[in-house]
Amino acid sequence: MSGYKLGDTLELALWYNGDRLTEKDAARHGIRKAHDIVIRQGGLVTTPLKWGELAPGDERVPEPPRHFAGSPRLMVGTADILAIRPGLVIA
Predict the structure, then answer these.
(1) Most exposed among 28, 49, 57, 83, judged by the fewest C-beta atoms under 10 Å?
(2) CA distances from 83 to 2, 29, 37, 87 (A)
(3) pTM, 2 dp
(4) What Rg value do the Cα atoms of the chain yield, rounded?
(5) DSSP one-letter string for the chain
(6) By the 8 A CB rule, do 84 and 43 touch?
(7) 18-45: string of b/e by CB count within 10 Å (b at 16+)?
(8) How far apart are CA 42 and CA 44, in angstroms?
C-alpha cells in the first residue's frame, strides 16, 4: 500500500535562486523527475503537473535553507491522483 488515496494532491517543491533563469529551469526539471519516480513507485496515475512559484513569507512557505544564496524562490509542482494501480508499483 502506497499511502496515497484517490483525490490526494501530490505536492513537490524545490528552492532555487530567482536571480538565475537556469536555476528555475533546473528546479522544474528536478520536480518533473521526482514526480516521475513517485508515480512509478506508487503505481499512480495523475493529472499533469501544475506549476507555481512562491517566496519566503507566502502562505505555507518555510524559511529557505540558511546556506541559500541569492533571491530565494520555491518552485512548486502539484498533481491530483486520478488512479492507483498497485500492480504497477516498482520498488
Answers:
(1) 57
(2) 12, 24, 16, 12
(3) 0.86
(4) 15
(5) --S--TT-EEEEEEEEETT-HHHHHHHHHHHHHHHHHHHHHHTEEEPPPEEEEE-TTSTTPPPPPTT--SSEEEEEEEEEEEEE-GGG---
(6) yes
(7) beeeebbeebbebbeeebeebbeebbbe
(8) 5
Dihedral (C-alpha) 16, 38, 77, 12: value to the nearest 10 degrees? -50
| Domain range summary for the chain, segments of one domain joined by + | 9-88
Q: Which three cell numbers stand for residue 4?
A: 496515497
State the residue for C-alpha cell 500492480. 87
Which distant-in-sequence residues (6+ apart) come within 8 Å of 50 by Cβ? 77, 78, 79
